[in-house]
Fold these 4 entries.
Entry 1:
Amino acid sequence: MKKKVCMLIHTHSFLDSRIFKKEAKTLQKNGYDVTMIVPRVKGNLFDIDKAPFNDRFLQPSFMHEDIKIVTYKIESFKPSPIEMQSHIDHGNHTKFENPLTQLGLEEKADIYHAHELGSLYAGIGIKRKMKELHNTEVKLIYDSHDLIPDPLDNKTIPQKRKTAMLKLLNTMIKEIDQLITVSHSIKSWYLSKNPLLPVEIIYNSPPLAKPFEPKDYKNNKLTVCYEGHIADNKKGSRDKIFDITNICSKQTDFNFKIIGGVLHGHSLTVPDNLKKHVELTGWVDYHSISKHMENVDIGWIDFDDLSQSLNRSYALPNKFFSYLNNGIPVVVNKCHEMEEFIRTHKCGLVINKPKATAQDYARAFLYLNKNRAKLTQMSVNARKVMENLYSWEHMEKRLLNVYESLINGNSPFIL
């Protein structure tokens, strides 16, 4: 009989690449019966760029690529950290009257897999109710995509709320059976809270790009790429992209390619003098990213203002592995986890500054442009490390091992 998995989601899109494209599809492919319980916002599900689906996915529940999707109204489940803490501290199941817990109970799954603080709270309600009402032990995974709340973030989250969220997180992880996270630094942070917590790292890496043609770097043009969301001056700064392009295009045949861009409802206007040097693909299908990267020479990541974000220092984001997967060396500012990776595997260049300027990046790109042999070796190293260690083919083995250990009742302490 198939083992049943229920993914609990509170804020992510149901098409999130980690949750749906990688984890849910891997489990379904390997014989698990997978259900995802996902939020509607103002009656709609939403895409990865926050665009609402107005003419699709309108049923309360439906099948999508052999995954069962069950929906609920996010407006009916917005508990505060203090409210959740009170219900957790109550010590039993009676306070968990919310749609995510209720719908999760109806699935009668063997394993529940939560992805945010809100969905972890709902999962604890499910776990308690199944034990107290049905004498059934279900397993609960918390998938920490990043650190929420960010302990260093003193701007976006008021201090009182952040303190309450950290207390809630510290309380809730005592009731999980397995923690999954995305970098060694985040794993270490959790183990400092609870040294006996079973933790596995499942990196945000894609399946190996196939077919793959090694880059030869023989043409004179240099194409730098940014993949993902252009938000502000802390992540994917449009001004920094335009300044880099302006500097580099005056010295070489230069192109800046943006895969992704701004979210639904926003616009990105390229200055007239740079339009022939900036290529905008818009948001593309997850499986077509490799195709869009075929003509890319260098990948760019800039996580500014690290003093205000532990997450940025600890991050190994999707785009990082997308670049490496396609044999693209990465240039990044001094972020702890990415710096350690790049220096270990010699697959890119680290600007030795936590706050790197457009001029710093331009100098790095122009340096690599003049040193094509070095760039070629970095490219070879990038692809090799994905093939040997980090591609999703390796990560899905870790995911399946976690699930098999929980089902067999011998979950190891991975220290």
Entry 2:
Amino acid sequence: MDDGRDGWRKRALVPVLVFLGLVVSVVSSLGAPLVPTIAARDHVSPASAQWSLTITLLVGAVATPTMGRLGDGPWRRAVVLCGSALVLVGSVLAALPLGFGWLVVGRGLQGVGLGLTPLAIATARDSLSEERSRSAVALLSITTVAGVGLGYPLTGVITEAFGVSAGFWFAALIAAVAFTAAALVLPPTPVRARRPLDAPGALLLGVALAGLLLVLSQGETWGWGSPRLLLLGAAAVLLLAGWVRHELRTAHPLVDLRLVRHRTVLTANVTGLVAGVGMYLLIALVTRFVQTPKAAGYGFGASVVVTGLVLLPFSVASVLTGKVLPLLARRLSAAAVLPLGCLVCLASLLGFAGLRGQQWEVLVVMAVAGLGVGCTFAVMPGLIVGAVPAAETGSAISFNQVLRYVGYSTGSALSAAVLQAHTAPGAVLPSDSGYTTAALIGGAVSLLAAVVAVVLPRRAATPPTTPVAAGAAPAPAGRTVAK
């Protein structure tokens, strides 16, 4: 029988893991509403101030797969604590009045935290009972998107009342709480064989992803047809091809691509990439639309605070969906829930395309989007967890997370490109029809995600195991599922 101390730690593990995921998501989203204010305060151009957001995603894309692989070995607890500590240090650097350069450095260190959620999912798989792991894995998966809807209003309220630095001091406070809680509650890492880190693979993937995300984030600023953007994009694609070749040949790959080719894992990864495009396209459209002055003939002229509150239904609905998902999946199966979530996202984008004249309509649209995202993203980690060996959980989930980041960046860039195409020469604001066109494109992307989830059905090569996020138990720790 566990003593009282161990019992307390086990009961606190799920809340601490979820809090850690929310903290990382909130901290990473802090930069978006603050870009104009940072540009004015630090006397830099808006394009330069955008780096306070871009650098976080770039560092996260590089750090996530490496942390995932390290977390699959005997160092998971240490990796989580070190990552949390770097988020805390980055928050303090961003908060201190040291100048724009140190702000960017701090935001980069905060980006390391994006690699913590896959490790939290791996910890839940190894440490929780079958019953508790069902909802925990699903809930952890949607913290990455739910935190956006929480981070925006918090940023707006704190910044409006106390200034830009106060927002980052708030990030430092919650990061310190998360680090302390993790240090007290995280269990020891399961005993596993040490594996050498694939440093060349980590370098190749990191540089390739950084180049790809830089193309997506800077395309509007540099120009989508600019030579340096095209050259950077071509180099990123070549590096990705080289990384795939390297991973298939090395004895200890950073990401086991043979597992990625497993039909279940492939379904989750491709759907996550495509669905991420549609989800973030809608968020980018909504945040820009509601802040547009009414003089433009559309929009609500909302403040940063009100804009954040518009996203709140998205977060609430996604979290609630994650909690009831096990019940839904028992009736429909995970294979049915995944395309269903994509279709609900499609409905939200179609709703925004036709119904956005009143604020309450946009609130309903975001709530529907939250339902769709909750269904879609909550089920993915369970599909992956049920299809890979326990020793590959962190790496496999991390790769899925990176693909989501690429999808998010693509959706944001796509929304900006479509709106720019609907902006008349010399005009500052796009036409209202631009939002309709962008929403319809996002709807087509969500429909594609649903088709992918159906065309690449879950098909096990061995007698089927039960997926976690679908409301069933994970494969026993250490069990190897056939590739």
Entry 3:
Amino acid sequence: MRSKRVLPLAALLLCTPALAGTAPAAASPQAAPPQNTDPLRILLTNDDGYSAPGIRKAFERLTAAGHDVTIVAPLTNQSGTGTKMMSAPTLTVKHPEPKVWAVDGTPGDSVAFGLAEVFAGEAPDLVVSGTNFGPNVAGLATHSGTVGGAVAALESGVPAIALSTGGLAAPDPVTTVNAMGPTLDFAVKLIDRLRARARSGRLLPEGVGLNVNHPVIGADSSGTAAAVAATFQDPQNFLQPDFTDSGDGTWKVTVKVALRPAAKGGDLEAVAAGRIAVSPMNADWNTGPAEHAVTSALISGLRP
């Protein structure tokens, strides 16, 4: 979902001091924008399941930041389901505790149910999906249920952020959970930035979301990232399936890691360097004007 037309948005959001870590310049009283101090209404989802550590930590941290958070997430682990939505005529939904709904379906199903029923009549200000256990960079993002939940929100016109925690190595339970703390601290800063810039309007332009990947930093994995980078989705898919014939009609499936050099300015490069990658995304799968021009040239002169 690389989109040239929305990349400047992320650059604009990240270039000011609050996220970059430098001291802000003094502003005159006349220049201060009006602030909306009402809590944001946030629909919180994920693909690891409604009781996973990442979503529970996100609920606690976002609530502590003053936001009105409601979990509407899959009943079971739905990692790797991408933008899939169920087509069954019925859907099992549980309401195990206040502010928590568990949907027996995908992240997309959860968001759809949340927008239609839990937030019926007034859409949330923001959908946050995650934080995911492990990264969602490069080709992983295309198939990610975490990203898929955010895409479902964007399709319905609701601003969305996908959050993921992890480096390029296989996620370790202890270190990844430790790194979720700084991931969510950054998420709060990012949401504050969006809120300040939006004043009382939309947090993000219509149809635009952010895919945020936080690296694992430090010996105990609770360290601070080196920087924040506005990135795009690296086009490579570095997980390659390998199939071995068992001889009985079944095939054994393993996965190989085949990393190529990271694209300069991409999310893979940023996370590998210990930076937080913030990639703008949209839900309509469009490319930029250059690709449209190439397509027009390819079909020039063709007739039905």
Entry 4:
Amino acid sequence: MTFPRPHRDDWLAAAAGLLGGLLLYRLGLHSQGDSRTPLPTWVTLVPLMVTAFLELLRRTMPRTALLVGTAAVVADQFTSGSIATVLMFADLVYAAVVYGSPASARRIPVVTAMVTIAMTIGFLAWFRDAAALLVGVVTGLVSFFPAATGAIVRNHREAAIAARLRAEQTALLAETDRTQAIAAERARMARELHDLVAGHLSAIAIHSTAALSLDDEATTRQALTVIRENSVEGLAEMRRLIGLLRDSSGDVEPAAAPTLAGLDALVEQARTNGRQSGLAFVLHDGRENGGRLPAPVELAAYRIVQESLTNAIKHAESGEVRVEVSGSPRGALRVTVTSPFGRRPGPRAPGSGAGLVGMEERVALLDGTFEAGPAPGSGGGPEKIWCVRAVLPVVNDKEPSA
């Protein structure tokens, strides 16, 4: 059986206790008179050496050291006695509380207190003299007092460990929150960048393809005009976004977020970009009057319409693209965009699916519902339409909460 390696301080405690006990023995200083025991004086060294050895186990095997140390200090009472043995036993009691199990740390102070009280009462009943109280005092000093001190030290250590763990958990939660905030901000920036630039780039791609494929001067001039308009607008949007990202001093005033009031201009721009593809755009605004909607709701609705129109320009067949907006400030805002679904001749811009993901994320942030996909046509025939529906809950900040 291999014993754990003793701590350096335990070696020092064992050496100091043993050398101190040997010095007291050499000087003839004993805790009890020689006449009180028939045993030879050298027997006092046996409990001394046992207790000194147990000091090596005070951290690694505190319970065993205390049990054997108790037997050694009791045996010391039947010899001439050594103060060093008693002091080392007190240290074993302290170590058993500090380094022992939680159960031992709770029980040892109680047991030593009961032993102190029992010793005091017992010697008072035996000697019937108030001087017997000194026995109880000495017993308390070498048993209960070290145990109580150890309990206080252990409680302080456990409180410090708990505080450190809480600090580490707080730091971990803060780091997690920071990571989530960065991820959310990156997702928001990706949505904004996509919604701001994708429409312009899609129009540029479609009209440049048409200009290259059709040998017609009027068509080419019209395509180049649309390309120039979209490239200038896209470049302006990119510069504004880059300026907001780079300048943190507050000198650059951020542009106002788009609202539903800009739907007319948005649809008109889509008419210009989609005319080459044979698309007609219709806006039906059926909102009830009663005040402005919250800014996040209006921004999300605007971006959903913007992205749906961009997708229609990129993928829809020739036909009517219809935008319907309805709702009230006390209910929910409903946005529906329908476009002809199917393969169309002529140039098309490739898609990555990021637009649908962005729209779904915007709706999810507002706890709304979103669906997009092919649906039967309104006439009941074999034709199909691509339908985007979003329901955005409206929270009225002026209403008192229930």
